Recover the amino acids of this structure.
């Protein structure tokens, strides 16, 4: 697909290339040194240099803040290498863990009316072992698929509804990131809405803790752990990294330990029978469950209160770090063009899938 981008850019064609990447974790070894394919960082960098308005990179992955310290550093380093020119989502209000792992590429040449589509998907993480490019081919158990379609633009597009789904996600992530960085009112509304939603969930957990069965206490405990990680990811994904990093560092110094997200995921259940079994297995008494749950609820409420007091949407530009400043310039020059091009393609896909 890289050759098609270069061809269109050099020929002054009207085109749009979209790279959509999703992974639970990302490592710099996975995005910059896997052999047998062009390294992702190099590919994106070259494509953007060729045509910043004609190339869109969207990445959804986990916030580094939900991981233990060493993995957190690795995840943060990888994200920092991408976030000056990619639209990155680290938080989704309706999701806990991002397990979707794939790389999807679209190339639309409007001048020649051709469409290329490639995909790498399955259970892979964007790491060397996930991509199976370690010595002696020692890697994870993954699925691999790749296809390349050349046809009249959107005339014979296979699986149009599937493309509609992914293009809708791409539009959502790009549009949300664009608005949060360029529209202070959108940022303020987003902040207020999310805080209100999280406070409602915390209040419900507090109600459960006041008096209930051990099974329900365990369910509330698991949910409080998930909400704590959810709250950290929410803050981490907000614009103004100098301020959000400072807030999250203060939270960490309070001594509340972030749980392992995979352990929390295994604990979440809507079955009281299973909840009782897990409480027995983990040797958690009602007293312990109640105490731990209230501790995590209190930590979440502290984070939200600090946000209310210190985070001002109208002043957020004061807290951009150097990478965000470059990203803002990138948005000013290309963001609107990206949104308009995606809207054009999405409208056509809707026609074909309807």
């Amino acid at each position: 697909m890289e050759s098609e981008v270069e061809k269109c850019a050099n020929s002054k064609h009207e085109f749009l290339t979209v790279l959509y990447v999703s992974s639970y974790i990302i490592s710099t070894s996975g995005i910059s040194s896997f052999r047998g394919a062009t390294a992702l960082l190099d590919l994106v960098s070259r494509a953007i240099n060729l045509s910043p308005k004609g190339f869109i990179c969207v990445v959804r992955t986990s916030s580094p803040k939900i991981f233990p310290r060493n993995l957190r550093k690795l995840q943060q380093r990888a994200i920092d290498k991408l976030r000056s020119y990619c639209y990155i989502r680290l938080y989704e209000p309706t999701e806990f863990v991002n397990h979707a792992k794939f790389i999807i590429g679209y190339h639309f040449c409007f001048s020649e009316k051709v469409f290329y589509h490639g995909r790498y998907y399955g259970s892979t993480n964007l790491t060397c072992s996930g991509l199976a490019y370690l010595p002696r081919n020692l890697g994870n158990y993954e699925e691999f698929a790749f296809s390349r379609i050349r046809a009249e633009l959107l005339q014979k597009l296979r699986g149009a509804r599937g493309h509609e789904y992914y293009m809708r996600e791409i539009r959502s992530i790009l549009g949300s990131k664009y608005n949060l960085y360029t529209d202070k009112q959108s940022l303020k509304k987003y902040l207020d809405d999310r805080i209100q939603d999280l406070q409602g969930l915390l209040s419900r957990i507090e109600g459960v803790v006041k008096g209930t069965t051990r099974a329900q206490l365990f369910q509330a405990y698991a949910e409080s752990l998930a909400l704590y990680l959810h709250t950290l990811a929410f803050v981490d994904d907000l614009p103004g990294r100098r301020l959000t990093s400072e807030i999250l560092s203060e939270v960490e110094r309070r001594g509340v330990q972030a749980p392992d997200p995979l352990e929390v995921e295994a604990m979440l259940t809507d079955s009281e029978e299973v909840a009782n079994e897990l409480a027995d297995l983990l040797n958690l008494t009602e007293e312990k469950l109640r105490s731990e749950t209230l501790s995590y609820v209190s930590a979440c409420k502290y984070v939200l209160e600090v946000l209310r007091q210190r985070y001002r949407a109208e002043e957020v530009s004061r807290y951009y770090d150097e990478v965000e400043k470059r990203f803002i310039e990138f948005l000013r020059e290309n963001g609107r063009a990206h949104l308009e091009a995606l809207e054009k393609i999405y409208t056509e896909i809707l026609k074909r899938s309807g």
The two ends are 28 Å apart (CA to CA). Residues 139-158 have pLDDT under 50 and may be disordered. Residues 2-182 form a domain with the Endonuclease; Chain A fold (CATH 3.30.870).
